[in-house]
Specification:
Elements lengths: L2 H13 L10 H14 L3 H14 L6 H11 L3 H14 L4 H13 L3 H15 L2 H13 L3 H13 L7 E6 L2 E6 H15 L3 H14 L4 H16 L21
Helix pairs in contact: 1-4, 2-3, 3-4, 4-5, 5-6, 6-7, 7-8, 8-9, 8-10, 9-10, 10-11, 11-12
Length: 250
């Protein structure tokens, strides 16, 4: 279970304490089913119980929070997006659900929409994590100038020294210091605009910060081989930057 998925599931468990279940009415029966399903990590049964509770007491709009978290935890991003987006529409101050919307959109390929929501989240809290996700999405949209500007902000931010991101690659996933990941992204952007020397410099900076950085070492190795052969180094040969795995409501 990834870090964010585990955090979402813990939030789901904690939310049960706010859903009181007393007596033997139909709502109470479904609540007991819901609790038992969560205890056994049977998210499908828990989802059915939530829908039954909503049918019995449609005024309990708070149940939507638990429903959104279950869908997100199950990596059912389309459903998570629709439920969380409904919550945000009703209460635009729900940044936790706005982040779930952004993450879900990112996983659904709604890159422009996801970027727009990450920009809102960053404006609300100035979290360097949101800035990193913005940079990844800007890269995916081929907005290389914007991506590099975001990366430079990350590199200048002391908060980035305290954070890591999980990068997924062909050889699995790896927790990487955020600034090392930022230099790797900057190197890949340099390749995209045909600046191999700048790319090499940034890959080396990434590796100096994190010597076991698999993606950056692979990018540098590929670049060195291309330079040795005299061939042009297309960015398509590099390990592209990846979002956190999967990116995360806090």
């Amino acid at each position: 279970m990834t870090k964010i998925t585990f955090a979402a599931f813990i939030a789901l468990i904690m939310s049960v304490t706010s859903l009181s279940a007393q007596g033997t009415d139909p709502f109470d029966v479904q609540m007991r089913v819901y609790k038992s399903a969560l205890k056994n990590y049977d998210l499908q049964t828990a989802t059915i119980a939530l829908y039954n509770m909503q049918a019995i007491k449609p005024e309990r709009t708070d149940l939507n929070d638990s429903l959104a978290i279950i869908y997100f935890t199950s990596e059912k991003y389309a459903q998570a997006y629709f439920v969380a987006n409904g919550i945000v529409t009703a209460d635009p101050k729900r940044n936790d659900m706005l982040e779930m919307v952004a993450v879900s959109q990112q996983n659904l390929g709604m890159i422009k929409e996801s970027l727009s929501n990450y920009e809102k989240l960053y404006a609300n809290g100035k979290s360097v994590y949101y800035l990193y996700e913005m940079a990844i999405l800007q890269y995916q949209l081929k907005r290389f100038g914007e991506c590099i500007a975001s990366i430079d902000q990350i590199l200048a931010n002391p908060d980035a020294d305290k954070q890591k991101v999980n990068i997924r690659g062909q050889q699995g996933s790896q927790d990487v210091p955020m600034k090392a990941a930022a230099y790797n992204v900057k190197g890949i952007c340099a390749l995209e605009v045909n600046q191999p020397d700048a790319a090499k410099e940034n890959f080396n900076k990434a590796i100096s910060l994190f010597p076991d950085f698999v993606a950056a070492k692979g990018n540098l190795e590929t670049l060195d081989k291309k330079n040795a052969s005299g061939a042009k180094t297309p960015a398509a040969t590099a390990n592209k930057p990846a979002a956190t795995s999967p990116a995360k409501p806090k």
